[in-house]
Amino acid sequence: MKRLFTGWSWIPWLTYGAAAGLSVALVLIAGGSPAASARALIESSVLSAPALGESLSRLTGILFSALAAVLAFRGGVLNIGIEGQFLMGGIAAAAIGPMTGLGAASMPLALLASALAGALACLPAAWLSESRGVPPVLSTILLNLVFAAAVTWAVRGPLRDPAGDYPQSRPIPDEQAISTMVPGTRITPAPFLALAAAAGLAVFLWKTSPGLKLRAAGDSPLAAKSAGLSDVKIRTWVFLGSGGLAGLGGGLEVLSVTRRLYDPFATGTGYSGIAAALLGATDPLGAILSSFFLAALGAGSRAMEREAGVPAAIATIIPALAVLAVLTHRAWRERGQ
What we know:
The chain has 14 helices and no strands. It is mainly alpha-helical.
């Protein structure tokens, strides 16, 4: 965590203060009370077991998406297609569970298929980048549209529930789903798997030789290439690993939260993960805090609207202001260096 707070001056603090001030101003313009809004937000996101369960259920997808972004950005890959890779993981989980008929044994198979689907979803962008010079930031964001269309096709075609009128997949049977740990809440083991993944990624990036090579290739590709590192191979593996993490998040979303795939599915989770990665200084440990912050905002936004009279949309503006503050801080620090 020490890395998150080194080299700060009063300018970054002023930037973050301005973002917080703008957030308060938005609440006031909407006719609400900042204190009442904060109280409603906190009470409905962390101060009871059901509220905490709602926040933790949102945390899983956001944190896995954030870890996917952290891995990609540290490896010098601008993977903006995490949303689509998340969706492909959801499709795989929705297909494996009901269609295999293996009972509880299908759960690990569904998670493996989700990670594999997310990784394979990165291959077109990786190939276009290395063989045709297409910027990943462009190809991945366009592939998001393709994979969103794949969800529409799946729930209206091969995965559609014949017993329902709404375009959605067959429900995940109870024995194949990830059950709740606390009755009356949505607390499952899924968010704790995400926390373990964050710890594992932190160890990999900062305590292992492959992690050092990955960060070196991301920070200075030319220097890494001069040192004999294969930048193409590293970027390809980074792409696959990033997509695998995003796909695993999508699979867990289906198995532990929604219990089926529908259209649209978990809209914006991948983009929230990218925002969380930036807020967390592209550090796995920082991503935990920022992901929970975004999850709590999402869980408490409706209560904030209902109890404090503040539009829930403001909860989506606040993270955007925070990300702008982070990017401004980073630009100022790089200018100083």
